[in-house]
Amino acid sequence: MKILGVVGSNRKHGNTSGLVKAALQAAEKENADTALVFLGDYSIQDCVGCEGCKDTMRCVIKDDMQKLYPLLLEADGIILGSPTYFYNITATMKAFIDRCYCFEAFARDDRASWVGLHEALGIKYAVVIAVCEQHDEADMGFTAEAMIKPLEALGYRIISTIKAIGYFKAGEALQDERAVENARNAGKKLARTISLRKEVERKMQEII
Ligand SMILES: Cc1cc2nc3c(=O)[nH]c(=O)nc-3n(C[C@H](O)[C@H](O)[C@H](O)COP(=O)(O)O)c2cc1C
């Protein structure tokens, strides 16, 4: 079982990073192989809307996103984490998500009919972690939803959504045992869901 953590903050020792790591560590205890990606380490151009991926489901832009596509395809589950930047995800996270557009397929003569790659290949599972400074959830704006909606469109079921509210200084969220525990529980639940899915697949192969 493989789980990929993706951090959309450039603060490597920040709140998002800390909570994504806590979730991954809990998943490891449930026998997951994990990998952690800091999007800031990768050069990811914006999607240019060229539709070059339309027939191939491959993005034509040759940049570091090409290193991340195989990781996404291999992973049974994903943990996306972003701090709130002006009520939304960071620009890096948005670029990363937009570049997953190649994993959407639209009917040639009817763009209202479409499927996400993982809907077609077998759904995958995701955890979303959003972190903001203010103490009112309204000040987080669309951060969580900006990750949830695209993940769902791509064919992921969201196992847990964590809205970690009221953390400003880098790493502050890790001082809050409740926030860390929430992240750990999300990672554990993600790994357990994937294990169960694999168990059911094995059982069904014996039956049919
Ligand atoms: C450009 C920028 C915009 C921000 N916008 C918001 C905001 O709209 N609402 C909020 O509550 N916090 C906002 N913050 C604060 C961060 O979300 C907060 O400090 C968070 O803990 C940073 O996470 P990190 O440590 O993972 O980078 C903003 C911070 C920056 C740098």
Measured as a percent range, the helix fraction is: 25-40%
Distance between the termini: 23 Å
Shape from CA axes?
A: globular
Overall mean confidence score, pLDDT:
97
Strand percentage lies at 15-25%
What composes the largest sheet? Answer: 5 strands, parallel
Rg, nearest Å: 17 Å
What series of H and E elements makes up the topology?
A: EHEHEHEEHEHEH
Q: In the CATH scheme, what's the topology name?
A: Rossmann fold
**Can you count the helices?**
6
What would CATH call the class? Alpha Beta
Q: Give the strand tally.
A: 7
| Count of domain modules | 1
Largest beta sheet: what is the strand line-up? 2-1-3-6-7
Q: What is bound: which ligands? A: flavin mononucleotide
**Unreliable stretches:** none
Q: Pairing-aware structural class of the strands and helices? A: alpha/beta
CATH superfamily: Flavodoxin domain
Instruction: Assign the CATH architecture.
Output: 3-Layer(aba) Sandwich
